[in-house]
Write a structure and sequence with these properties.
2 domains, Aldehyde Dehydrogenase, Chain A, domain 2, 562 residues, 7-stranded mixed β-sheet, Aldehyde Dehydrogenase, Chain A, domain 1, globular, 5-stranded parallel β-sheet, 20 helices, alpha/beta
Length: 562
């Protein structure tokens, strides 16, 4: 057995580095993102694939409190047969087991809990190739993206959450001696102890597109601040989080702790377990990524809990002018195509003034800009192999329905098309659709079309674009915004508009950084400043809302050592 304190000493250097990285905000990563033999070893890739294949067609090896049968709901967007099943737990048994496991976890202290968490992440990293296949065949991400976003980048996000939680929960000294001088007598002396106490049972509700990247911050922030966690995956993407919970339970047991500190809650589609758990009086923290409808419902109904949501929004690009037209088109075309637009950060609304834009390639009207952007997408996706690696596969029927609906709009600039994948003939792969709208068509562009659907919207002027951007994001939310302009005045106005709207802004991205990608330790994701998200990982509230610090004090007799 390895105690939590021993795990902390084992990983102390890494944890110290991570805390420093959260303060510096420069590039730093603990887990290499390249699925290379030179990084992970000759056998890592085939061993990971074998481990994934060995799971298929069988019950997943994990225990849950109060098991009441099994669930099998996943299908691969790449067309392979998964055949996995998972034990279904009684929600009340999960909550009871979580509460019973809490006292020993609280006694482990912030450093001990951080040490256990760091060991969990280390073991997740060791299974990165297996995890990549699990992410690929549940979410539809292409393999390299699944390895990075679903694997190492998610692990960085987990470690970042551990670092923030450790720093916040150790800000106050655990012990202190208090002495107050008294006139004509001995001083008053008190010995004080401060203990970090978790808010209560945490519930992490996973999504179908980024089950690890979006779930790990809440999972690890809750754990390190002293809370047990129930992990409720989306029915379409259970395996990545089941592997995660399996590793958590393994490390907890090896640490002499109750593995029911982390449990798995699966359901048949439509069972509503998330709502049942989220409103249980003992569930005091809810982390959710998904639709605005359910996110809003959680915020309104899970009144006993602190609720962190990441919902949908209208990610917006303002195009005014550029001195690198080809670079702008390349950057935008990749941003619109990556993972078939199935990212909460993918641009949807591209605002272009009616008078057109000035570029280093000459003046471009909105119509010419739309045609040029469509041509850039065609060029990017012209090779079927590269297209499959960029687009991944469509994760659910709702995305296909929105794609079909957008294709019926009156002015489609670029129609969607099917793409064949040589390795996976059954894969559901589609290229993006690009449609032209007018600023008056607000009923269309103020509704999020999650997936590979984007609109080139003609506005009266750049000033009009800025007003539309501010008003729509304030009303409907967004996780990203972008502006292209060579005018310092326009850039200054865009910054002010982004502050008013409450969204992060990217300016003139033309190289290898894209608006829909964020890096742990360096970038901010989610703000809490608009309806799309209630907090950012880097906000104190995201961590401090998960725990209390309680004090115990007693007199120290004059003869007792202080």
């Amino acid at each position: 057995m390895t105690s939590p304190a021993q795990w902390y000493e084992t990983h102390r250097e890494l944890l110290d580095q991570a805390v420093r990285a959260t303060q510096a905000r420069d590039y730093w990563s603990a887990y290499p993102e390249s699925p290379s033999k030179s990084v992970y070893g000759e056998d890592a890739a085939p061993a990971g694939e074998r481990a994934f294949t060995a799971l298929l067609g069988k019950p997943f090896p994990i225990e849950v409190p109060g098991a009441t049968g099994t669930v099998s709901t996943e299908r691969s967007p790449y067309g392979i047969e998964l055949g996995l099943s998972y034990p279904k737990a009684d929600p009340l048994a999960l909550v009871a087991a979580a509460r019973a496991a809490t006292p020993a976890w609280r006694a482990a202290g912030p450093q001990g809990r951080a040490g256990v968490a760091a060991e969990i992440i280390k073991r997740i990293n060791a299974r990165s190739f297996e995890m990549a296949h699990a992410v690929q065949h549940t979410t539809g991400q292409a393999f390299v993206m699944a390895f990075q976003a679903g694997g190492t980048h998610a692990q960085d996000r987990a470690l970042e959450a551990v670092a923030y939680a450790l720093a916040a929960s150790t800000r106050m000294p655990a012990t202190a001696e208090w002495t107050k001088p008294q006139r004509g007598g001995d001083p008053l002396r008190l010995s004080k102890t401060s203990t970090v106490v978790g808010r209560g049972v945490g519930l992490v509700i996973g999504c179908t597109t980024f089950p690890t990247w979006n779930s790990y911050p809440g999972l690890f922030a809750s754990l390190v601040t002293g809370n047990p966690v129930i992990v409720k995956p989306h029915p379409g993407a259970i395996l990545p989080l089941a592997i995660t919970v399996q590793i958590c339970r393994e490390v907890l047991a090896e640490s002499g702790l109750n593995p029911d500190l982390v449990t798995l809650a699966v359901e048949e589609r439509g069972d509503g377990i998330a709502a049942t758990l989220a409103t249980h009086p003992d569930v005091r923290i809810v982390d959710f990524t998904g639709s605005s409808d359910f996110g809003n419902w959680l915020e309104a109904n899970a009144r006993q809990a602190v609720v962190y949501t990441e919902k949908s929004g209208l990610n917006t690009v303002l195009v005014d002018s550029t001195d690198d037209y080809k670079g702008m088109l390349r950057n935008l075309s990749f941003s619109l195509s990556l993972y078939s637009g199935q990212m909460c950060t993918t641009p949807q609304n591209i605002l272009v003034p009616r008078s057109g834009i000035e570029t280093d390639a000459g003046h471009r009207s909105p119509e010419e800009f739309g045609a040029d952007l469509a041509a850039a997408i065609d060029k990017l996706l012209g090779d079927p192999k590269r297209a499959a690696g960029t687009l991944g596969a469509i994760v659910n029927d709702g995305v296909l329905a929105r794609l079909t609906e957008a294709g019926t709009l009156p002015d489609v600039i670029r129609a969607s098309a099917e793409v064949a994948d040589e390795q996976y003939p059954g894969a559901t792969i589609r290229t993006p659709v690009l449609a032209r709208l007018d600023a008056a068509d607000e009923k269309t562009y103020t509704r999020e079309c999650f997936g590979p659907v984007s609109f080139v919207i003609t506005t009266d002027s750049t000033e009009h674009s800025l007003r539309i951007f501010t008003e729509t994001v304030r009303a409907h939310g967004a996780l990203t915004a972008s502006v292209y302009s060579i005018s310092p005045g326009v850039l200054a106005s865009a910054r002010e508009a982004a502050l008013d709207a409450g969204v992060h802004l990217s300016e003139n991205l033309t190289g290898g950084v894209f608006v829909n990608q964020t890096a742990a330790f360096g970038d901010l994701h989610g703000t809490g400043a608009n309806p799309a998200a209630t907090a950012s990982l880097t906000d104190d509230y995201f961590v401090t809302g998960r725990f209390f610090t309680l004090q115990s004090r007693h007199h120290v007799p004059a003869t007792e050592e202080v």
